[in-house]
Design goal:
By secondary structure, the chain is α+β, with helices and mostly antiparallel strands. The chain contains four helices and eleven strands, in the order αβαββββββββαββα.
Length: about 250
């Protein structure tokens, strides 16, 4: 999470432009497990801050500053990756990897039930789920820097629709637009699981917004883009209760 940059600090940074020639030096060995990241999540009934009655379930939440963001949140994606998440019995992500790079066994679907075989870690027995990871910036809170975000298993249809819209964005010259070209409003709603009949909260829609400004791109998106791409395979260390599958 980035701190708010004051006018005096911006002036000081402009006076240190000579450092541009040394960009990135010295931090290249600070790996994925040595950093603290902020996440954009949807609070569920079992989330700690909901159980302790600090916040209500069903809202987007910035874990870095413990900030509730409501059922609608405006975001700009700056990076995207398909990942394999290993989930423990409580639904928390304990490891993240490139698809197809870890060993697994397949657990067949029980007789009489619908679905697909589950991938399981043969040592831990944890389930391995393919999902989508995003690095986002909040245009209304640029001081927050970038936040990592994972598609919940109960929201995959909505995220696939959003991915399609991101893929189809075009510039005025007809070329494919970069993923960070526009802002989007993500919508969270309560749903009922078809398998367990229990309520959960999911991202149900992504509404297309305006094109990003040159200032927002230069001051917020561009700095976040370089760092976030490196950290896309970092497993969430925050509480991560899984949504129920559609």
């Amino acid at each position: 999470m980035a701190k708010e940059t004051t006018v005096n600090e911006k002036t000081a940074q402009e006076g240190a432009d000579f450092l541009n020639a040394y960009a990135g030096q010295g931090v290249e060995n600070i790996g994925q497990n040595a950093v603290s990241l902020s996440y954009l999540t949807i609070l569920q009934d079992l989330s700690d801050v909901v159980v302790s009655k600090q916040f209500d379930a069903g809202i987007f939440f910035n874990t870095g500053i413990q900030q509730p963001l409501g059922t609608l949140v405006k975001v700009i994606p700056v990076a995207f990756k398909t990942v394999w998440d290993e989930k423990d019995k409580g639904g928390k992500t304990v490891a993240r990897s490139e698809p197809g790079t870890v060993d697994y066994i397949e657990e067949p679907v029980p007789v009489g039930q619908r679905g697909f075989p589950k991938k399981k870690n043969p040592l831990s027995g944890n389930e391995i789920i393919e999902t989508f990871a995003y690095a986002l910036v909040l245009p209304e809170h640029p001081e927050a820097g970038f936040l990592m975000h994972t598609a919940g298993i109960g929201s995959m249809k909505a995220y696939r629709r959003w991915n399609t819209m991101l893929k189809q964005m075009r510039l005025t010259n007809g070329r494919s637009a970069p993923i960070f070209s526009k802002s989007w409003t993500l919508v969270a709603e309560s749903r009922i699981s078809k398998t367990t009949q229990k309520p959960f909260y999911a991202m149900v829609n992504a509404i297309e917004g305006e094109w990003v400004s040159r200032t927002l791109f230069a001051e917020t998106i561009l700095p976040a883009r370089d760092t976030s791409s490196i950290l896309m395979l970092t497993a969430p260390t925050v509480e991560d209760h899984s949504e129920t599958e559609d």
